[in-house]
Task: structure prediction
Amino acid sequence: MIFRFATGGFAAACAATLSAVFLAAPQAQAQPAFPSKVIKVIVPVAPGGGADMVARMVTERMSQSLGTTIIIDNKAGGSGSIAAMEVARAAPDGYTLMQCFVATHSTNPAVLKLKYDPIADFAPVGMMAQTSNVLVVGEQSKARTLQEFLSLARAKPGVMNFSSAGSGSATHLIMEYLENQARVDLVHVPYKGASPALQDLLGGQVDAMFPSLTTALPYIKAGKLRALAVASFNRDPVLPDVPTVAEQGFPGFSAIQWWGLCAPAKTPEPVVARLNKALNEALALPDIKARLHEMAAEPMPVTPAQFESFLKAEVAKWTKLVSDTHLQIEQ
Result:
């Protein structure tokens, strides 16, 4: 067989094509593997609260697995919606993430008009942990049980107040739920994050709060806060003597606090998978498990697909709750 080489214009075209191929190959190979630079995780609450502590603990170990630095950027406000909007609009390359949690991806969508879609605008990476929510009052409070607290509230309708991490947050919505079920009237005092809300409770400026047990536990142990009830299905093993809201006259009452990791929508699947692997490896470490347990939190390793299903169920649950109880949320 005789091979004849093309000549003239066709040869020039072939040569140009081959040159383009060979020039493109090194460029394609030059694409750095993920991650090749610093990753930023935006935490939608003020520093010092339970969410912030969990984020810093978990991402510190993730950075070791990924071989890069992960920095925390706290951006409180709007019950987490400010941080969520920033991440939803960020480049989908895996270098800007957020600690999504019950407010940003469960309760906010049920009660607020948002400029982001909790499902369509994000790529779920995985869950970090979950914990109970706990009704607490300051050490100066006369209430020592949930029923005593409700009796005081009924005696002074519209006088007793409660703090929250922001309008539409879990700490807000759970208390609104309790008000609806118990037929009491409390004044809502929103803050930019759980930490400042808790500080005013400790200082006596507000009467009660429904924070995560992770946030409240150190103060409960120190005797500065009194736990009246937990909002989980069952009693929390960290506080076995504190009854649930359900067993104190409100069957079916249940709400948990959870934290996860979300990326902007359209983040490449291999990048999401790499982040999920690093996250779950961190959660499997004995020291992380022990530290989470000390904080009354439970590690929740899941796949991105499982996390997406969880988020969809959460939005549906809280939306139905708001509809069924006719809760009116003031922004």
